[in-house]
Amino acid sequence: MEAGLSLSLDLPESLPNWVMMDPQRLRQCLSNLLSNAIKNTASGGITVAVWQPAAKHGAPMLCIEVADTGPGIPPDKAQAMFEPFVRGPGTSLGTGLGLAITRALAEQMGGGLQLLQPLSGQPRGAHFVLSLALLETAAPHLAAPEDPGVPLDLTGKKVLVVDDIATNRLVAVTYLRLFGADPIEVPSGAAALLALGSGGIDLVLLDMNMPEMDGVETFTRLRQLPSPTGKVPVIAMTANTLSDVRKIYCDAGINGYLAKPMTPSTTANEIHRVLALGDGTPAKLPQ
Question: What global pTM score does this model have?
Answer without folding.
Answer: 0.57
